[in-house]
Amino acid sequence: MSPQISADAALDRLAANTIRFLAVDAVEKAKSGHPGMPMGMADAGYVLWTRFMRHDPTDPTWPGRDRFVLSAGHGSMLLYSLLHLSGYDLPMEELKNFRQLGSRTPGHPEYGLTPGVETTTGPLGQGLANAVGMALGSRMGDARFAAGGFSPTAYRVFALAGDGCLMEGISHEAASFAGHLELGNLVVLYDDNHITIDGSTSLTFSDDTVRRFEAYGWQVLHADPYDHDSLAAALLRATEDTAHPSLVVCRSHIGYGSPKKQDTAHAHGEPLGAEEVLATKQALGWPESPAFLVPPEVRARFAARTAELKRERESWDALLARWRSAEPSRAAAWDTFRERRVPADLVEQLGAAAPGGNAATRAHGSAVLQKAAALLPGLIGGSADLEGSNKTRIAGSPSVSPRDFSGRNLHFGVREHAMTAIGNGLALAGGWLPYTASFLTFTDYARPAIRLAALMKLPVVFIYTHDSIFLGEDGPTHQPVEHLAALRLIPNLRVLRPADGLETAAAWGLALERRDGPTLLALTRQSCPALARPAGFDTTELRRGATLLRDDASAEAVTLIATGSEVGVALDAAERLAKSGQPARVVSMFAPQLYLSQDEVWRKQLLPPGGKRASLEAGVTYGWREIVGERGLCLGLDRFGESAPAEVLAEHFGFTGSAVAARVQRWAVNA
Predict the structure, then answer these.
(1) What is residue 272's predicted lDDT score, i.e. its pLDDT?
(2) Which residue ranges does the chain devote to CATH 3.40.50.970?
(3) Are 45 and 69 in contact (CB under 8 A)?
């Protein structure tokens, strides 16, 4: 698509300055914010949004829209100004309430809060990796739905990143991955302003960014960010090269136009101050008052662009209608894909197909994945170079490659951080049900993106195997002990640690039917015994996150509450306790967060008030006190592990039926 041509350079400058001073005035009114980046990149944003971006302000979720990702999220007023002027539901009052409680203009853009914001950005580099995921989502969609010269998933992704984004390690991982897959539908504007919070980037940053991105396989272009024709020419070349992602380097000036603060760190994260605002307006020929000025001719310019966009939308809708008529089966599949349709009884269906026998839950997970993939065409994913260990390959489907995007298996390489953020981008692209996988200890590398998935309420599944010290000989560097507790602290992240095939099937089902946030599955390397359930057990009970496996009506009974591989140990211990005269019950609590969210009546039935309770999990005991009570016993590992075979570690740390029974017996006497 050719860019829209502007014949009035003076009007273009006026429009760019409008964007610039909306940002200045909003930050000044809030007495907080980052004016420098919007001031420096206002022209680039204006050219991109009025000449290249295809979008519909009346329908922010239109599938045919191009995506814009502000990876440098601190410059949020650039995006808010563009959204307001373009006609999105973001009235001037919202700009005036920048950074205030309850506004739709928070300090950093938030997905789901502000119309037109495609992802939550702020932690630098995350947006860039999300953009890679969005671009990948489009390519994979095209491979499935394109026909007759039309694809309902074809769009371009434009991102704006700064020096900080490119310093963060995640940008290296994501850019390398995008170059390998030749994602030519991705264009990144690089705000190369040479300034960070501490001062000049020369303090710490001497990379040759151009050569780095060329080595990744990107097309690298240069543009003068204050010359609109130069910007348009670079963006045109970037969009015409569909075989390589493009980086457009813009040697910009942070705080552009400010006599005292341009090209200084002071322009980054603090208001200009009333005196400097006045001086900047004078320097750029902008009226001193009123604040938040939008000249009528600028309104008219954006209105004209909106009219052009309306015609583009109408043309796209006509192509879609013809495609639907010519490709009814593809259209039906696309509708199912877009809506992420999942059978209402998915948990029960997967439970009915759950593998039995003794096996590692990662092996059970692999079997369940195949069934889930057959039911859900939008289910895709991959591992961080650990596919054989994570057992996350969808059988019968090829791997995604630069020459074939039709597969369902993604190879992320040793890139846990970017992998997770790219998974988020796939979810944000729409339709996809993505999963990513690694070892549980490496959530340390992925945690920032996991947290953002929870904040954005994205339907992503995080699969983490080797979930305890029982991975064995690799030792404490690879043995997670604090990770389950830490991950459960992330609001809206659901952590599930199943104990056998049935619980693993339920965990997958709960994860895939969820639409209000991500789910993490913690799976074992070592074999776990198949669990016997009471007569009349109903798989719907698994939806509550905890089930009773062994009961005893005695008032003196101890309830052992365990997760994952420790459930089998708890059952063994309960048998030993009963033989020694201590009644025991066993509860498998594969999802403590789900259990705590249930109604109080049911929770009291499962764990009677006043009863003796002991928790058992091969990790730190933090968090279990809420469940066992102040007088309860928490059995775990509040230290790092050791390098040894799993069975040796179980004996050494007391995670055997006999050791647990002995400890509980001693405690129960005085409880």
Answers:
(1) 98
(2) 9-310, 346-522
(3) no
Joined tokens for residue 97: 């309430």
> Can you name the residues that pair with 616 across neighbouring β-strands?
562, 635
What is the distance, to the nearest Å, from the Cα of residue 180 to the centroid of all Cα atoms in its chain? 21
Tokens in use for 94? 């919202």
- Measured between alpha carbons, how far is 512 from 461 in angstroms, rounded to an integer? 7
**CATH number 3.90.320.10 given to 346-522:** no
pLDDT of 527-538, one tens digit each?
A: 999 999 999 999
390: left (phi over 0), alpha (psi -120 to 50) or beta: alpha
Q: Smallest Cα–Cα separation from 235: which of 290, 186, 288?
A: 186
Under DSSP, the state recorded for 359 is B
In the CATH scheme, what architecture does the domain 543-670 have?
A: 3-Layer(aba) Sandwich (3.40)
Block residue for tokens 């970017």: 418
Residue in the structure block whose two tokens are 């007391």:
654
Rounded-to-5 percentages of helix, strand, coil across the chain: 45, 15, 40
Chain-centroid distance of CA 15 in Å reads 34
Please state, in angstroms and rounded to a whole number, the distance separating the CA atoms of residues 239 and 233: 10
Mean pLDDT of the chain: 97
How would you class 478 by CB atoms within 10 Å of its CB: exposed for 0-12, middle for 13-18, buried for 19 or more? middle
> Please, which pLDDT band fits residue 4 given cuts at 50, 70 and 90?
low
State the burial class of residue 203 (Cβ atoms within 10 Å of its Cβ: 0-12, 13-18, 19+): exposed
**Which of 75, 80, 127 has its CA nearest to residue 105?**
80
pLDDT tops 70 at residue 630 = yes
Round the CA-based radius of gyration of the chain to a whole number and report it.
28
Nearest in space to 293 (alpha carbons), one of 21, 26, 27, 11: 21
Report yes or no on whether pTM surpasses 0.70: yes
β-sheet with 157-162: strand ranges across: 67-70, 157-162, 186-191, 246-250, 219-223
357 sits in the region (left: phi over 0; alpha: psi -120 to 50; else beta) called left
Crossing angle for the helix pair 566-579 and 657-670, to the nearest 10 degrees: 60
User: What is the full DSSP assignment across 527-585?
Assistant: -BPPPP--TT--GGGGGGS-EEEE----TTPEEEEE-TTHHHHHHHHHHHHHHTT--EE
Q: What is the CATH number of domain 9-310?
A: 3.40.50.970
Contact 238, 219 (CB under 8 A): yes
Calpha distance 658→512 (Å, rounded): 38
The catalytic position among 110, 173, 182, 416 is 416
Give the pLDDT band (50/70/90) at residue 3: low
* pLDDT at residue number 7: 58
Cis? peptide before 152, omega within 30° of 0: no
Mark whether 416 is an active-site residue.
yes
Specify the pairing of strand 612-616 against strand 633-635.
parallel
Q: How far from 99 is each of 114, 178, 320, 406, CA to CA, in Å? A: 13, 34, 40, 43
Residue 90 CB contacts under 8 Å (≥ 6 apart), including other chains: 80, 83, 84, 104, 105, 114, 115, 116
At residue 130, does pLDDT exceed 90?
A: yes
Residues forming CATH 3.40.50.920 domain(s) in the chain: 543-670
Largest CA distance in the chain: 92
